[in-house]
Amino acid sequence: MRFLVMFFLIICLSPASFAADDISTSPFYNIDPDTLTPSQSHSLLAASKAQKLETIREKSSVIRTSFYNQAEYDVLYYKIDIAIDIENEYVDSSKVTIVAKSLIDGLNILELDFTDSLQGYYSDELALSVDSVYDDNGLLNFEHHDNKLIVVLDQSYNANEEFKFNIRYHGAPYAPYGYATSAGKMNGDGLAFGKQRSMLGGNGQIPVAYTSCEPYDSRRWWPCKDRPDDKADSIDIIVTIPKPYYCASIGNLKRIDLCQGVPTPQKFYYSVDYPIVTYLVSLAISEYTVWSDWYYYGENDSMEVINHVYPEMYEETLEPLQVTPEIIEIFSETYCQYPF
Question: Helix, strand, coil % (nearest 5) of the chain?
């Protein structure tokens, strides 16, 4: 059985994911999106896109600082075990496991991407901290600064030798390029938090967490080799959140476990068995109505198409989303069979 996960995300949560780094100059700064008319929203969105484009142009002229050569190793596998406090907009104690292969002789230090500060914005409130790095033999030395995580391995590894280590971390992710909330926090790229928009029929107070990471923003919520030219062969994702929230992610949902605690924690287990870049690792967390449709490859093969929608939007989205299997069939007949 195969699975296709459909995300029905609130578009207006990320309209300003195109604003500039300086939140005080963002067109959405201190503006409540619920008070805008469609015309005003479109005008501000256009201004935000133009502003972010200019920011990208400026940054593209700056040479990327690198302490060590990331091309010296190849990531084979990630396991992300993350606990998200959606109401307090915080990542509790979490762990990333990495299996990699050396591409040179004598590899004993490697560099990962992992945001450590806000570069001047609310650094006391919003930052990600590494608690420890370790392998099966014990703790490993590391440095975390300048948005890089430098790990000293337990020994030198020659070409084609594999190694494995773990990273424990916690903190408040920084998601720039978004509109500023009343607290001055940013909702945009990386792991962002917000509320369901009342314009969609909700009460505007239900928490939402989502990721937007293309092309280099996975580092804003989990440590990784954050570059598209190194695809991990597979990834496991474990997300712990309290009820009644639900986590949609990529890959196959293997199971959901209920744990002890108040409020009741849930663990969502997702698995991806195809090569994948870091920016495609994604989460969408809120209160969802989850329902399934099916795409049939043939008489003996099918794929579940899973839809996650806000409860208040279920009725109006039910019919439009039922066209998804037909769309997959048209593209499969026109180009090739859906491969995943």
Answer: 20, 40, 40
| Alpha carbons 282 and 235: distance in angstroms, whole number | 12
Cβ count near 194 (within 10 Å): 24
Q: Which of 247, 262, 208, 206 minimizes the C-alpha distance to 89?
A: 208
Instruction: Say how many residues make up the chain.
Output: 340
Torsion region of 213: left, alpha or beta (phi above 0 gives left; psi -120 to 50 gives alpha):
alpha
Most confident of the following: 8-22, 101-115, 162-176: 101-115
Domains of the chain from N-terminus onward: 70-175+208-287 (2.60.40.1730), 291-334 (no CATH)
Q: State pLDDT tens for residues 221-260.
A: 999 999 999 999 999 999 999 999 999 999 999 999 998 8
Measured distance CA(109)–CA(69) in Å, rounded: 9
CB atoms within 10 A of CB 328: 18
How far, rounded to the nearest angstrom, does the alpha carbon of residue 9 sit from its chain's CA centroid? Answer: 13
Residue among 284, 281, 303 at smallest CA distance from 293: 303
Q: CA-to-CA distance for 232 and 236, rounded, in angstroms?
A: 11
CB 218 within 8 A of CB 226: yes
The amino acid occupying position 211 is T
Token pair belonging to 330: 């048209």
Average pLDDT of span 311-321: 90
